[in-house]
Amino acid sequence: MNYNQPNHNRRDSNYYVKKNNPRQIPPFWLSKSRFYFLSIVVALVIFFFLWAIIQESGDKTPWITAGLITSILLLCAFFLREFVLRKTKYAYVVSKNNSEFSLSKRTSNGGNKSGKLALSLQQNSSFLNRIEKKSKQARKNNQLVEGHLEAFRLCEDYMNLTSKELKKAAVGSTKWGAIKNGRKRVRKVHKHHLISWAALESRRLTKEAKLKGTIAGKIETAQQANLVLESALSFYPEDSQLIDSIEAVSDFISSIKISHWIELAEKATFKGNYKRAISHYKDALFYLARETIGNIDKDQLAQKINKEIKHLRKLNN
Asked: Distance between CA 281 and CA 278 in Å, rounded?
């Protein structure tokens, strides 16, 4: 997470991974602890307010009605955050990623807003040299995320600009041929650096997910890795490397959920709370049945968990 922002003077520095806002959290999103803290504070205010109003009406047990209404409000707050806002956040991040990858309005010079920029043969050659130079730098420092992302964006600039120029050039002309050949060369570079960036960034996020202290933190960070890969997949939807990487991260997320419940069951067993341990093992079986995990034998793990449940039931009786 602590890599340096590249030193450049390009007009577009809105990288997918930003130093000051790496997770691209929506402006309306509160952390879990803050949201629930504010919800409880608001609920308490409403509780005492309702208590006072109901008491004035002559009710001898105003706290029951006030408590019931407040409990319903808290449940609504839980549903709002865990289902509605979380879904909205996910949609926001995906939209943000796609918009940041959309470079159709950008050109290599960035100063022509009319869209009538003409690309000469010399400019085309110069642009290709810039791409080749940037690509060599990125390949030399192969583990630096920024280099691959810059090279990809430069390629995207060229492809967008030349797609318009190609339509205006006479078929078979020198300019048409130069642009055709240039696009063929750049397309390979474009794909290489996009996939290299996605691989490095998703790997970094996956490693970070493993270090998180909570299951929510692990899953959230791993989902960010999947968003990176899905952004790249939108350009190359049939790329097997990206598809396999997405499946691997999805397997990792599933294993986090299952391991979490197994760990809770083992802790409950150690404390002698066999009933709770059985409940946790059943939760593990639930996620094991619904999740797609390619790197483990689901049947073998299910048999092992069921064996533990059977053993705990004997101890609990």
From this structure: 5
